[in-house]
Amino acid sequence: MDSFTFIGTLSNPKETEKFHPFERQTYQSGWTITTLLMRCHYGDSNVMLRLSGGKWADDSKNIVKTLKEKAEGDKKYPKQDIEWSKRFDSEAIKSVPFFKRFVFDPVRASVKQDLRNLISQLKNGETETDLMKKYNVSDLNQAEDMLKKLYAKKKEFLVEHDFVEYLGTCVDWDKYKNSVFKITGTYESSYNANDQKFYTNYHVTSIHRVEDDEKQLGQLKANVYVGKDSFDTMDYDEDGCARINGWTSYYDAQEKKNGFRPIMISVYGNAALINRFQYLFDNVPAEIVSTQLVCDIVNGTQYREATLDDLDDETKEDIKFGLTTLESQRQRMGRVAGSTISEFRFVDKLTIFQKTDYLEESMCPASGNAQQTSDDMDDGDLPFDLD
Question: Is the domain of 61 the same as that of 126?
Answer without folding.
Answer: no
